[in-house]
């Protein structure tokens, strides 16, 4: 039986199937030095799920047989996986080298053992996508924890000193997500304000702002239920469905795996343990990359979060 999202697609004469993968998104674990209110991963310092070196090697072997050019490393705080640097080095050593993206929470730069992390990322020309949900300290600290804003600003200044945000080979993007049960504002307008505020107040530069819709999953879903807003927020997403966003959904071209190497259509499906359409849970090395295109994508009510308004993806607004 089709779910409400699939029924909505059918009413608009749309379907959602995979293209050939262009990005492999690897969730290397749920350990994080922060406990953010909006986190769809339920990541935190007490989480122990971490991708092992053996699993990473199997992933690297599979990836080497493909034409997938970009690897998007996420978590948790992906840098807290003890094999994070090994993974980056091996990705850059492949023929051809892969473009690597690191979804960084910025404060990890100040964790013990990470003192040279910024230099490592710059040396390997890793693209950084950094979380900064607002340019105001009170909003960031309320969402991500006391003192996070100050540390985030210091981290951005360190990255800027290394050339991030100005050198063409060192792109630095920031991520905005709403502080409550509402959709993000227009991405380009927010970017203009962010750039002006951060430049004027802290001398910080960056390339692009990604406005991402909060997904009603895990920790954010729990907060919605506690506040009695779960139903109204879901209806907000449903009512804001934009059929023009469907063609550019990231699940069409991004393949996602968890810390065990199991395959999902996206990171949100992973957190909901919603595997590919049949009953079997596939590992990445079970998949023939030549047979991915055309496969149907597993969906649920949460998918309305990616098609609401201007749409939402790991690269920000779709439209």
Present the secondary structure layout.
Elements: H1 4-11, E1 23-27, H2 53-64, E2 70-74, H3 84-93, E3 99-104, H4 117-123, E4 127-131, H5 137-144, H6 148-161, E5 172-176, H7 187-202, E6 208-211, H8 218-227, H9 230-239, E7 254-257, E8 263-264, H10 267-271, H11 304-307
Parallel strand pairs: 1-2, 1-7, 2-3, 3-4, 4-5, 5-6
Antiparallel strand pairs: 7-8
How many helices? The count is 11
Widest sheet, order of strands = 6-5-4-3-2-1-7-8
SS class? alpha/beta
Largest sheet: 8 strands, mixed
CATH topology: TIM Barrel
What is the CATH architecture term? Alpha-Beta Barrel
Provide an overview of this structure.
This protein has helices spanning 4-11, 53-64, 84-93, 117-123, 137-144, 148-161, 187-202, 218-227, 230-239, 267-271, 304-307; strands at 23-27, 70-74, 99-104, 127-131, 172-176, 208-211, 254-257, 263-264. The protein has 319 residues and is an alpha/beta fold. The protein has a single domain, classed as Alpha-Beta Barrel (TIM Barrel). The longest helix has 16 residues, at 187-202.
In short:
This protein has eleven helices and eight strands.
Fill in the keyword field for this structure.
8 strands; alpha/beta; eight-stranded mixed β-sheet; 319 residues
